[in-house]
Amino acid sequence: MTVPTYPVETTTPPPASTTARAHLLHGGSVEQYRRTIADGVDRVARRVATVDRPGTGITPAELAPLVDRVDLDRPLGDAGAALDELEDVYLRDAVWFHHPRYLAHLNCPVAIPALLGEAVLTAVNSSLDTWDQSAGATLIERRLIDWTAERIGLGPRADGIFTSGGSQSNLQALLLAREEACADAIGPAARAELLPRLRVLTSAAGHFSVQKSAKLLGLAPDAVIAVPTDARRRIQPAAVREEIARCRQAGLVVMAVVGTAGTTDFGSIDPLTDLAGICTAAGVWLHVDAAYGCGLLVSPTRRHLLDGIERADSVTVDFHKSFFQPVSSSALLVRDRRALRHATYHADYLNPARMVQQRIPNQVDKSLQTTRRFDALKLWLTLRVMGPDALGALFDEVVDRAADAWHLVSEDPRFEVVTRSELSTVVFRYLPTGPGRELADAANLHAREALAASGLAVVAGTRVDGRHFLKFTLLNPATTVDDVGYVLDLIATHAGRYVHDHVAAELTCPVG
């Protein structure tokens, strides 16, 4: 007799894609979304509430093995476990810009309404390239561009676009300037002949992104000419005028002059009115890099420091510096919206030319980027909650604090200071006396490294006239004069010990 066989019932696991869908934000996962985000926010809040120094001083050699051991092909499957792991590889050793003794770079503490905007924009995930991906977001960004242009005073024909940061804004500005300079070069041969002759004049204290942009734009290796600065580290208008004349005599074409409203190292503001007059007379594009100094646009007391910026052809602003916004939030503004046509390309699948006739506003028509975050929302909510006067008062406060710090350093015989900033930087160095004076460069480098290793404070470094200096960049209204004094004492202790040890070693070293 044959025994019948029956198929064995087995439980088939659901497809991996079905499981994965549970991690996507949709109508059925909103409770998971709430719990997960709340857990992340709570962990960050606990860190912010308890950190007692801006950093831990961890080195790359110490942290890299922890990160390298993470197996990205074996998921933890749980957000809580992933956040536990994140504590070890990131949060524990993060650099905290909200701490009052973070005095290094142009990183600011961030406004809470902007963080609300960040949470909203990442969840909705609008892309600011076309109307059918962004709708109201497009109009909000355009309104903020108009508002910023009004603050600058660019006039009714102004326009602009949000960017990833000052470097991208400067790149696009110089792209527009290049294309305007090439407007009369009809045909590939004429353009090829002109491009090697284009020149850009910028301050010797200006941002490196000008040189980088020139390279990306295919200009000659010597296309960027660094114009000398005065004792306050501001570009010299007379030297700009002379350089334009010299270039013309040499058969070169100055396509742009770049003025700076807040140099990274010195916080110096170029004489913008003088530069505008020179550029107007010479028919040269004037770009103002106000990535740092744009906070003056909302200052109740210092707006006059930007006088002349309204005559620029293009302006860079970084809201993620002096408007207390999270990275990234930047924009490029132009006085004549027609110039933005040089960044316009039409794709049938995205923004066909017929949409222009239909008056459909596609922001990709103005941008170097296609897919682009709705970063404007952060500034929008900040303005709607706090208002521009409150932001300006915060920026005024850090500028006032920098003035106090400058007085403190300049009156301290242990240090020498370079120049007084119009914004919120102080460039200085420890200056040994006696036989250790020649060790000044090495002592300041050592002091900065030792300070960073301790985690007690973070300061920046730079070179001035070939010598090593230290730099405070104040963007935190919570920083006090006592904080500055405390950090100065730490620097003097580290640098002084370095000098003492090396001088002592030289004295005890047998001759020959």
From TrEMBL:
Pfam families: Pyridoxal_deC. Residues 1-20 are annotated as: Disordered. Gene3D superfamilies: Aspartate Aminotransferase, domain 1, Type I PLP-dependent aspartate aminotransferase-like (Major domain). GO terms for molecular function: aromatic-L-amino-acid decarboxylase activity; pyridoxal phosphate binding. Keywords: Decarboxylase, Lyase, Pyridoxal phosphate. InterPro entries: Aromatic_deC, PyrdxlP-dep_de-COase, PyrdxlP-dep_Trfase, PyrdxlP-dep_Trfase_major, PyrdxlP-dep_Trfase_small. Its cofactor is pyridoxal 5'-phosphate. It comes from the Bacteria. One of its GO terms (cellular component) is cytoplasm. One of its GO terms (biological process) is amino acid metabolic process. The modification N6-(pyridoxal phosphate)lysine is found at residue 321. The keyword Hydrolase does not apply. This is L-2,4-diaminobutyrate decarboxylase. It comes from Micromonospora violae. The lineage of its organism: Bacteria, Bacillati, Actinomycetota, Actinomycetes, Micromonosporales.
